Amino acid sequence: MIWFGLLALGCTLWMLHYRTAAIIVFFFFLTNGFQVIPVTWFDTGVGIQKGADFALLLLMFVLSTNINQHVRLLRTDTVARYAAVLTVFILIGIVYSVVIEHYDVMNVLRAARRFLFILGYFVFRSLKKDEIHQILTIMLGVTVMQCCIFLLQFAAGITLLNRQSDEIMELSTKGAVGDWKRLYNLPEYTVFYLFYLIFTNKIRIRYRAVLGTILAIAFMCTLHRSWLSSFVIVLCVIGFINTQGLFKKIGIVFSVMLISLLPLFVPVLGERLDSGIEDFTKAINGGYVAEKGFDDNLSFRIAHVFERFDFITQTPERMIFGIGFLTEDAGQSQYLNFSVGWRDKYGTRQIDTGDISWSIMFLWLGFVGTALYVIFYFKSMKTLFVHRSTSISNIGIAYMLLYFMISFTSSVYIEISTIVYVVMVVSAALSDVADREESYNLELSRILQSLPNGRRATSFS
Questions:
Q1: Domains of the chain, residue spans
Q2: Which of 136, 192, 247, 305 is the least buried, fewest Cβ under 10 Å from its Cβ?
Q3: What's this model's pTM, rounded to 2 decimal places?
Q4: CB 41, CB 63: distance < 8 Å
Q5: pLDDT of 4-15, one tens digit each?
Q6: Are the beta carbons of 396 and 429 closer than 8 angstroms?
Q7: 320 in Cβ contact with 372 (< 8 Å)
C-alpha cells in the first residue's frame, strides 16, 4: 500500500504549505509514475485502479482545505464560473448514469473522472506565480528525461515508458521506412514543453536549444502526420499574431513553413506525408467501399462520428446526456450496435477510440455537455489571448489550439493530462498578470509618495 502512503505524504505536504512538492506528487500519480511505473501496479483491488485515481483523491483533499477561497473566486473569475457550470453538469450526468441508466457506480466514475479534473483550476489559482513556474520547470526536467528514455527504446527494442501501447509497432517493412519502428508512448507533455522552450524567456537560449532539440527529435520519431502538420500550422498562427507589420508576419509564416519542410528530406517522414495526402484524397473521393470497408483513416473517423451523432439524436435525453458515462467493458455496452469502430477479438469497439475525441464526447456528454466543454475550452483560450503579452499565454494558446486541431484525429483533447495542463497554464497566465499589476501599483505608489505634497496634489487636479 505504498501508494496510499504517498497520497498521505502529498496531503501532508499541502497542509504544511509545501505546495509545489504536493503538486509534483499529484503529477506523479497523474502520469502513472511519470510513465515509468506499469499502470497495473497502481491497482489496489479496492476500486482504485490507476494513478489518476490517486491524483483525483489528492485533488479533492486539496480542494476541501480552502472552500471559502474557491467560492470567492467564482465571484470574480469568469473561467472559474464556466468550470463550475461544467462540473455541475458532470455531477448531474453521473447521477443520471447511475439512477436512470442503472450503470455500475465504479464504471461510471471511471468514465467521468477525467472531467472532474477541471476542478484543478481552483487549486492552481490558489498558487502563487513562483510556485506555478517552479512546477512548470520541474515538469520540464521530468519531460526531458522521459524523452531521453523514449529515444533509448529505439536502441533497446523494448518499451520503457507506459502509455497507449505496450508494444513497439512496426510502421512498414518495405520501401524507405525499412526497419524503422514507430512508438506510441511519447511523454505526455512533450508538445507543451516544445512550445514552452520556443516562447519562454525564463531560460537561456543555449539551454532552450539543447533541450528543445531532444524534445523535437522525440516528437518527430512518432511519425504522427496530423501532430507534425498541426504543430507547424500553430507556430505559423502564433507567429502571425505576435509579429507587428504585414511583411514581417508573412516572413515569419514563410520561414516556419520552410524550416518545417526540412525533416521531409528524411525518407521515413516523407513517406508518412505521402500516405497522409493519399488518405485525404481517398476521403474526398469517397473512402468507404461496402465490400472492403474503409480505405483511409479520415473516412473512418467521419463515419465513426456521424454514426454516433445519429444515435444521440434519436431521443431527447440522449441529446442532453448522451448514453451516460459508460465504459467499454461494462455489460450494457454490449447492447450498443455500432458497426463502425476498431475491431478486436471481442468484436467492434462501441465506445473507446483513440482516433477522434468527438465520438466519445457525444456519447458521454451528449450535445449539451459537449457544448459546455467546448465553451469552457475556448473561454480559457480567450482569456489567454487577452493577456497574450505574457509568454506563458502564448504557450497556452499554442498548446490549446494544437489540441483542438488534433481532436479530429485523436482523443487527447479530452484526456486528463490535457485538461490539467489547460487549467494550470490559464492559472499561470492570470498569476503573471496579477503580479505585473501589483508591481506596477507598488511602483506607482512609491513614485507618488516621493513627490512633494504640492506636486502630488497638482498631479491629480
A1: 66-444
A2: 247
A3: 0.87
A4: no
A5: 999 999 999 999
A6: yes
A7: no
